[in-house]
Amino acid sequence: MKKIFFDGRKSLVKRLVALTLTAMAVVSCMAFSVSADYTQDFDWRKYEGTTINVYNWGEYIPDGAEGSFDLNKAFTELTGIEVNYAMYDDNETMYSKISNGGVSFDVVIPSDYMVERMISEGLLQKLDFNNIPNYKYIADRYKNLPYDPENAYSVPYAAGMVGIIYNTKMVEGTPDSWSIMWDENYSGKILQFRNSRDAFLTAQVLIADQKGVELDTYVNTNDTALLDEAAAKLEEQRPLVQSYVMDEVYNKMESGEAAVAAYYTGDYLSMKDVNDDLSIVYPKEGTNLFVDAACIPTCARNKEAAELYINFLLEPDVALEIAEFLYYQTPHTAVLENDEYSLKDNKEIYPDNMDEIKTVTYRHQSSETLDYVGKLWDDVRQSGNNYTTIFICFAVAIVVIVVAVIVSKQQKKKRNNYD
Amino acid sequence: MKTTSRVYTALIMIFLYAPIAVLIFFSFNSSKSNAVFESFSLRWYKELFNDTQILQALKNTLIIAGLSALISTVLGTAAAVGIDMYRKKWQKSVVLTVTNFPMMNPDIVTGVSMMLLFVFASKLLNINGILGFWTILIAHITFNLPYVILSVLPKLRQTDPHLAEAAMDLGCTPVKAFFKVVLPAIRPGIVTGMIMAFTLSLDDFIISNFTTETFQTLPLQIYSMTKKHVTPSINALSTLIFATILLLLILSNVTQSRAESKLNKEIREGKKQKRGNN
Amino acid sequence: MKNNNSAKTQSEKKRSLSGILLSSPYLVWSVIFIVAPLFFVVYYAFTDRNGNFTFDNISKLGDYTGIFIHSIWIGLISTVICLVIAYPMAYIMARSGARRQKTLMMLVMLPMWMNLLIRTYSWMTLLQDTGIINNLISAIGLPRIHMIDTSFAVVVGMVYNFFPYMILPIYSVMSKIDNNLVEAAQDLGCNKLNVFRKVLFPLSLPGVVSGITMVFVPSVSTFYIAGKLGGPSNLLIGDVVETQFKASNNYNLGSAISLVLMVLILICMAVMNKFADDDTNMIV
Fold first, then answer.
1. Which CATH class, in words, describes the domain spanning B54-228?
2. What pLDDT was estimated at residue B93?
3. Using the beta-carbon criterion (under 8 Å), do A370 and C125 form an inter-chain contact?
4. If you measure CA to CA, which chain A residue comes closest to B255?
5. Which of B30-34, C167-171, C198-202 has the highest mean pLDDT?
6. Which ipTM value was assigned to this complex?
7. Beta bridge partners of residue A191, listed in sequence order
8. Which residues in C have their CB inside 8 Å of a CB on A?
9. pLDDT score recorded for residue C283
10. What is the pTM of this model?
C-alpha cells in the first residue's frame, strides 16, 4: 500500500515536470525571434569565439521579454562573441567595484557625471571610433557635453530629463514651476527624491531662476554658501513631504497616494501605463538632462570586441529596440526619424519646445563637496525630528532595566541566604 | 486551550502571509504595477519562462544558498560544540563577540570591507579579477556562521555534558560519543541554523553586490531593476516557488498521515487477529 | 582525593583542548574573514580621504546622536514586540505533534524566501492611505487610519522581517523541555503563571537570548525597511551609512559611524548577557 502511494507521488511529480516543460516549450515557440537587419559592409565576425563582460543597469536592455528582441542573444548570433552580463543598481556601486579593482568589465554604462569622474581618475579608455562607425547617428545635442567634451571616451546610450509628475485629479490646473513642490496645498502629497543630487537640483534650479543666474552655477557648484541656500530651501519643504523616495515612487503615484513627484521622464511613461490620470511637465525654471553613456574601462580585457558591442548598440534596428524598451529619450537620429518608433510623436518625452527647455547636465563634484552635501542632506532629513520623546523613553527603559537587574540580584542574594 | 492556540496560530499566519497574498495577487496583474490591479492575466508567467537571465540567476542563487548553508552548518556546529567546551569564560566571550560582528555591521560595511580584503588578497597573490563565484560563496558563509552558532549553542547549553562522558565511560570513543549522543540532542538547533543560513543567503543583496563579478544571483537582478520598474515576473517566480513548497508540504503531510493511519490500522487489525486467535 | 582532583583537572584540560581543536576551523575562518575586514573599517574610521590619521570622522558623529538613539530605540521596540508575539507561537509549535512541528516551521520560514524588496512593496500596498487595509476598514464604515510613513510602519516591517529569527531558536530549545518538569511543578501547587515564571521561561532562556541577539543586532543596522515604510521622519543609522558609502562616497565617515554603532550594540548586548547570566545562574 505504502509503495503504491509513493509511486503515485512520483508520477505526480513527473507529471508536474512534464507540464512545466511543455508550458516552457509552448511559450518559447511563441517567442519567435524578431529579425533585424544589420549594416552589411562591416566585419561583424572579426572577434568570433571571444567573450566580453558587460556591466549595465538592471532592466536596461531588451532581454527578449514577451517575444521581443533579445539584444545579447542577437549580438552573439551575429558576431560569435559570448556576453557575460551583470547588472548594478547605481553608479556608485559600479564605480567602487571598478576603482578598487578585482573585476574586469569590458563595457559599462555610467551616467554623465560618473563618466567625468572615471575619466578624471583614469578608469576609462579612449575609444577607437574606427571600430564604431555607427557613432555618426548620435544627435548633435548629445555631443560635446561637458562630461566628455571631446567625445573621446563615451557613446550616449539613453537620455532623459527630470520632470514634475502630477496627478491631474489631485492637482488643479497645469503646474509649470518647481514651486508646486513647495505648495502647502499639497502638504503630505509631495514626493521628493531620496538621493541628494536630484533633491538638491529641484531647490537649486528654483533659486537660480529667482536670482536670474545660470543653472550651472548653482547645480554644479562647489561653493558651500550656495549649497547652504539650497539646503535651507529643502528644509523649508521637509514638513510638506510625504516621503523621500526612489523606486517606491511607482507604487505611490500609480495608486494615487501622492499628488506630485519629481522623477525621470522614461519612468513617468511606465507609471502612466498604469494610471492614466498622471501627467508630466518640464518646469519653466529648467531641469536636469541626464545621459547614460557606454564606455570601456581600463580593466577591460577585450577592447576591440567591446567596441564592436558598442557599435552594435548603435545599429539603427537595435537602437530602435532599445528606445522602445527603455521609454527614455534616444540620442539616435535614425531612430528619431523612424516612423516605426512608437514614441516618435510622444509630446511628453519629446516636447515641442524641447530646445527652449533650459537644461543642465550634472558634473562631477569634488569629494569635499560630496561630503558637505552629504552632511547637509542628513541635516535636512533630520530637521524637525523631535528626538526628545525618544530620549526620554530610552532613559526610562534604561532605568527600568537597571532596576530589574538590581532587584533580581537582591532576590538571588535572599535565596542564597535561605540556602 | 486548544482553540486559543489555534486562533493564535491563525493570527500569526495572517500576519506572515498577508503580504505574500498581496504579492501573489499582483503576479496576475496585466499591468506592471504592484499597487493598482488592472485585470487578470498570465502575462508575467509567460515572461518569466522566457527570461533566461532570471532562470539562470535562480539557479545561481540556489547553488550559493545551498552550498553556503551546508558549509556554514558544518563549520558552525563544530565551532559551537568547541566553544561550549571552553573552560575559561573570557575565551568564550571573546569568540562570541567576534561571532556577533557580521550581524552588527550594516550590510554595506561588511560588503565593502570584504571586497577590499579580496582585492588586497588578489594583489598579494597576483590574481586578476578575483571577484566571482568563490568570493561570493566565502562572503555568504561568513555572514551565515553567526546564525548557525547562535542556534546550536542554546541546545548545547540544554544538553547535559555528562551524557557524553557517560557514553565514553561505557566504552564509546569521543567521536562515537559525539555522533551517538550529542548530535541527536542538538539536532533541532542544527536544523534551525541551517534553515536560517539558507534563508539569509537566498535573500542577500548588498554583500553579494560587492563580492561578485558576473556571477549574478536573483536578488542582484531584482534590486538592479529598481532604476526602472521591478517586473512582476519576480512576483510570478515567488508565487511559483511558494506554490511548489506548499505542494511539497501538503504531499509529505498526506503521505505521512496515510502511512501513520495505515500503521495504526495494521496494529488494530493485528490486535484483533490476536484476539481472534485467542 | 588529591589524585581524583588532578584527574579531574586533567580531563577538563583535555576537554578544553578538544574544544579549541573543534572550533579551530571556525577560529581561523573568523580571523581571516571577520576580523581582518574589520581592520579596513578601523583604518577608514581613523583616516581621511588621503590616508592621514585623524579623529575628525569620530568627532563628526555628535551630529548623529539623535539618529543613533532613534535606531536603537526602534530596534529595541521591534525586538520586544517580536519576543512577545513569537514566544507563544514557539510554545505552541513545541507542544504540537512531530509532523505539525515540521509544517509550522516551514510555514514560519517560507515568507522569508520571497524577496525582501517585493515583500516591502506588498507592505506598502497594504498600509497605504489608499491601501488594502484602509479600504477594508472604510468598507465597514470606520475612519481610515494613517499608518504608512510612520514609526509604526517601520516597526511592523522590522517585526515581520525578523520574526522567524526569534521563533526558531526559542522553539528549538523548547521542543526538548521535559513535560514532566511542568507537570511536577503543577503537582507541587504552581499555578499557570508560576509554572511559566519559574519553570518554562528560565528553561527556555538560552533560546530567548539567541533570539534577541539575532533580532536586535541586525535590526539596529538594517536599512531599506525604514526608507520604504517610514516616511520623512524615520531616517535610521543603516540608511545613513548606506548613503555615506554610496552617494557621498565617504568610506571614512561611513566606517566611523558603523564602528561606533558596533560599540553601542556591544554595550547593549553586554547588558543583556549580564542580565541573562544572572538568571541562568539562578536556576542552576
1. mainly alpha
2. 86
3. no
4. A5
5. C167-171
6. 0.90
7. A243, A261
8. 49, 60, 63-67, 69-70, 72-73, 76, 121, 124-125, 128-131, 148-149, 227-228, 231-233, 235, 240, 243-250, 253, 271, 274-275, 278-279, 281-282
9. 40
10. 0.90
